[in-house]
Amino acid sequence: GATLRTIDVTGKAVIELFNAPSSTIRVKNGGTLASRSTDLGSEVIYLRAGSDNVHITIEKGAVVEGAAGEVIRSTNAATGAVLDNSGTIRRSSAGGDRLIHLFEARVLNRAGGLMQNDDADDAEVEMENGGTLTNFGTNQNLGYGLAFEGDLTDTVTETLINAGVISTAGTTAIDFRRGDDVLELRPGSIITGRVLGRDGTDLLRFAGTGEARFGLGDIGSTRQYRGFELFELKSGAWTFTGSTPEAFSVTGGTLLGTGTFGGITATGGAIAPGAAGKVGTLSVLGDLTLGANA
Fold first, then answer.
1. Separation CA 66–CA 292 (nearest Å)
2. Are 58 and 81 contacting, i.e. CB atoms less than 8 angstroms apart?
3. Contact 167, 141 (CB under 8 A)
4. Is 122:138 a contact under the CB 8 Å cutoff?
């Protein structure tokens, strides 16, 4: 049979689900799902009450695009969505609204995937009531708004895992707002703009496979990474340079470099001062605690 490659409307939501739990939406390679409406209430994909655990897949080569309204949205009565993007999700108009706004969701932006707000003061991706965004592709707000925003009211945990590009044309790229949140950096992570942990006890974690570098001087109340209380090396081979008064825990991976730490507690992994394969000096201002498995 024939394949419908483009759905382009100018009214309200292009796809609106109501009482449709565990449904599946797939936009295939070469397909376009678009709204050209200038109405702020014109979503492209809108999950309403009772539409929990919906799985949305956007294949490589597919495009989901909105103009003024939120491109992919759920209400707080439609939770647990899974968004798997290998294509392009874009909001094209100036001003306007968020790109993605979901509750208790899991969002995966794969390598080559693009999530882009062309010109907005609102957040590009907002996660509420918890959820996880894992980014291997590009997540960018070409306006002055945030690239990622956590919950404004509830003290739940949002997790952002980044091994790709997250950027804004403004000053702040990521704002977790409230809750005990987690930012996990992996090799390949590039973040342009400030990162705010804000309220709660927030964790900056270093993980992944392969090698990466991080300047400890980027941590602090006037630096790029602000408002984090906990710091962990979980996996990977991370070379740290610069200095921080903060204490780190090492639960796995390899801590390399010539950095200065406020303290280190190692319950796993390895500490190997200097560059890989070379001898160097690592400094600890406070306590150094080595567990039996470190």
1. 55
2. no
3. yes
4. no
Give the neighbor-by-neighbor strand order of the sheet with 237-241.
211-215, 237-241, 254-257, 270-273
- What amino acid occupies position 208? G
Q: What is the pLDDT of residues 167-200, one digit of tens each?
A: 999 999 999 999 999 999 999 999 999 999 999 9
The residues, any chain, with a CB within 8 Å of residue 209's CB and separated by 6 or more, are 186, 187, 235, 236
How far apart (Å, rounded) are the C-alpha atoms in residues 289 and 250? Answer: 10
Stated pTM of the model: 0.94
Q: What angle (nearest 5°) sits at the alpha carbon of residue 221, between those of residues 219 and 224?
A: 50
Tokens of 272: 């190997």
Contact 83, 102 (CB under 8 A): yes
DSSP state of 274: B
For the chain, the residue count is: 294
Rounded Cα distance between 29 and 287, Å, is 54
* Of 214, 221, 148, 211, nearest in space to 181 by CA: 148
Q: What six digits make up the tokens of 122? A: 């609102």
